[in-house]
Amino acid sequence: MEEKNNAVDAELVEEQDKQVDNEPVETNNEQSTNELEEKINLLQSEKEEIYNRLLRLQAEFDNYKKRTLKEREADRKYKAQDLVQELLPAIDNFERALQVEVTEETKSLIDGITMVHKQLIEALKSQGVEIIETEGKDFDPNLHHAVMQVEDDSIESDKIVEELQRGYMLNDRVIRPAMVKVNK
């Protein structure tokens, strides 16, 4: 019976060998190589993703630096704007006071007002404030505010005839447009 069992075992072994020969068998080396290639591919894709994220963050940071630099420059350039806007009504009142007819009694008062007015204008100029030129100039809606129109054939069309209220600029920004009378 043992011989019979041995014969059956031999047949089974032969049959298994045939099946093994027909099927491609992967060895441990091939399996580990495939696993390593998969891990390498995964790591490379992760590296590329992280590198792209780093590039985006770096670009965002550069944009942030540029934006904050521009904001600081604008703050420095226009730091006097609020103060100028607060002082303009006082300067307007000084100019109205200077339009009063000078008499012997008011001469010294007008001289004092003139000196203070000049000091204020000089202080504003030192901060970058300029008076907008008006009379005889072409009307510019960016600089001037037309409140009246006149018809005068001796003056060109769209020329400023009279300044009703001074306009001011701080560096390149209009603080207050000049109120003017324009020829049609």
Describe the 3D structure.
By secondary structure, the protein is of the alpha+beta class. The chain has a domain at 75-183: Head domain of nucleotide exchange factor GrpE (Nucleotide Exchange Factor Grpe, Chain A, domain 2). It is built from four helices and six strands. The chain has helices at residues 2-22, 28-77, 81-98, 107-126, and strands spanning 129-131, 144-150, 160-165, 168-170, 173-176, 178-183. It has a three-stranded antiparallel beta sheet with strand order 1-4-5. Strands 2-6-3 form a three-stranded mixed beta sheet, with no helix packed on it. A hairpin with a 2-residue loop joins strand 4 (168-170) and strand 5. The longest helix has 50 residues, at 28-77. The N and C termini lie far apart (131 Å). Residues 20-26 have low confidence and may be disordered. Its main location: cytoplasm. InterPro entries: GrpE (IPR000740), GrpE_CC (IPR013805), GrpE_head (IPR009012). This is Protein GrpE. Homodimer.
Shape label: elongated
Strand line-up of the largest beta sheet = 1-4-5
The radius of gyration is 44 Å
**What is the oligomeric state here?**
single chain
Q: How is the CATH topology of one domain named?
A: Nucleotide Exchange Factor Grpe, Chain A, domain 2
Secondary-structure element pattern, one letter each? HHHHEEEEEE
Can you summarize the main beta sheet?
3 strands, antiparallel
**End-to-end gap:** 131 Å
Q: What class do helices, strands and sheet pairing give?
A: alpha+beta
> Total number of β-strand segments?
6
Poorly predicted regions are 20-26
* CATH homologous superfamily annotation of one domain: Head domain of nucleotide exchange factor GrpE
Count, helices: 4
Which strand-content bin applies to the residues?
A: 15-25%
Mean pLDDT: 84
Share of helical residues:
55-70%
CATH class annotation of one domain: Mainly Beta
The CATH architecture assignment of one domain turns out to be Roll
